[in-house]
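Protocol step 4 of 6: record predicted structures for both targets in the notebook before any analysis. Target 1:
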Amino acid sequence: MDDRRALVEIDVSCATTPRELQLLLLHTLDFPGWYGCNWNAFWDAVTGLVSMPRRLRLIGWAGLVTRLPGEARRMRECLDDMATQYPELAAQVEYA
């Protein structure tokens, strides 16, 4: 039985610091409480600790790219790498 959620929406427009973004990801994607709040930990979480949703909609993406360009780039790299390396586990990502 597939336990993946059909759609998860994350409003990243409220994240103004890297820490806020990481905490938003932790809570919205149901990462474990001991999540390390960095991109290496994000990769570990999405590729082995939690089930990613079938679709992931990132609301306010353009604003995040403006406010936190390095964080947005790293997040997109992780999600793109996951789609390439683990397509059966990856979410279809919409950057809204």
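Target 2:
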Amino acid sequence: MASLTQATQAPNFKRPASVLVVVFTRAGEFLLMQRIRPAHFWQSVTGSLQPGESPRLAAVRELREETGLLGSGQLIDLQQSRLFPIIAAWRARYRANHCFNREHWFALALPGRRLIRLNAEEHSHYQWLGLSQALELASSWTNREAMRWLAGCVTPA
């Protein structure tokens, strides 16, 4: 049996499963946040599932942690997911044999803009943007695809 010291020093790898929560207003503005690392990386709410956590619970948790928004009742499960290669900047967070991540999509529609309480350890700025500006700024192809899907610009997979 491993000692308590060994157990507490074991690496805490992320699960290769995550959520994407696209927050938008009924006027068609999308919330994007700039990550601290990597620099110049803009995204919607995202985060890895914790051990034993469902995608929905992870979406609610990440939404609260990253924005301060409490949206569990209004959170929409888009019944969409995408598999993508884990980018080099984040590869060390995962076990060596995990090269791909499964991202589950959710959305939160708001009547209008809200003040966002950023998690300063993860994000430095946020913006509410129209679809075309949000598509230009979003760093992740899955984030862009989810925004297009929500805007009705693409057919669901």
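Step 5 preliminary note on target 2. The domain at 14-150 is CATH 3.90.79.10 (Nucleoside Triphosphate Pyrophosphohydrolase). The chain has a mean pLDDT of 89.
Proceed to step 6 after PI sign-off.
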